[in-house]
Design brief:
mainly beta
Length: 257
């Protein structure tokens, strides 16, 4: 009898140990399973680091559990019974939720791309490519305006156009359909010196400013043989009122398209 009890006891101990070692992403074999993967490409320009969690579990690399500046991470996992996975990105210090996204079996390999700094979040950065320069010496632009009306409260919710002029006032082109969530049409024109462009923001297909009674002009550089993805950003003064529109952020400087 003792010789039979010992093997059974040993088997029970091994079974318990195996169960204790099962990864938290593992479930019984009879549940439907499907592999998944999320490709994360981002840039954090906030003063605080950010954390990325999938279903509440913070992603780590060795002992690193938070990110600043460039972020490039691929995370593989398993879907169980078609249940979605929830990705949350938060400020590590303030715990502010910056972004939430559901990964589903409809798209088992998915991409999250973003740029963030204080008071600015741009998602799906890699969904749009820079325009292709067609002639040597030309400068190219696309624009997006995620903070439209944040401080100006203009009341205008349509698309914008940008009348682009050299410093001498010569119009080099008009970029169309600048949106809050979508990129504008691509525009290109010959680059010249001085390399400064003054762009006036107006309501689509008009010459009327999007802010009543106020001309809005932003300044940027035109660089030969360079295609840029410019983020327009409303800025405020010390009292919190609209000050101007900044055009210094070029997403091509931070991402590999």
């Amino acid at each position: 009898m003792k010789t039979k009890i010992v093997p059974i006891l040993l088997f029970s101990i091994v079974l318990i140990l195996c169960q204790a070692c099962i990864n938290e992403d593992m479930v019984p074999y009879y549940e439907k399973q499907q592999p998944g993967k999320v490709v994360i490409r981002g840039y954090n320009a906030q003063k605080d680091s950010i954390q990325i969690a999938v279903d509440g579990k913070i992603l780590k690399e060795a002992k690193i559990d938070a990110y600043i500046k460039k972020i490039a991470k691929d995370h593989e996992f398993v879907f169980y019974s078609d249940k979605a996975k929830v990705v949350e990105i938060t400020n590590k210090v303030s715990k502010q939720l910056l972004y939430s996204y559901k990964l589903t079996t409809a798209k088992p390999i998915d991409t999250i791309s973003f740029y963030t700094k204080e008071d600015l979040w741009i998602e799906n950065v890699l969904a749009a490519k820079p325009g292709k320069i067609t002639q040597t010496g030309y400068a190219g632009f696309k624009f997006i305006f995620p903070t439209l009306n944040k401080y100006s409260a203009s009341g205008y919710t349509g698309k914008l156009d940008g009348i682009m002029r050299k410093v001498n006032g010569e119009v080099v082109g008009v970029v169309k359909n600048i949106g809050k969530d979508t990129y504008s049409d691509f525009i290109e024109f010959p680059s010249s010196l001085p390399p400064i462009i003054r762009m006036e923001l107006v309501k689509h297909n008009t010459t009327e400013s999007y802010i009543n009674g106020r001309q809005v002009i932003t300044v940027m550089l035109m660089l030969p043989n360079k295609s840029r993805l410019i983020v327009l950003d409303e800025r405020k003064d010390q009292s919190g009122k609209f000050l101007n529109v900044d055009a210094s952020l070029n997403l091509v400087d931070y991402f590999d398209f």
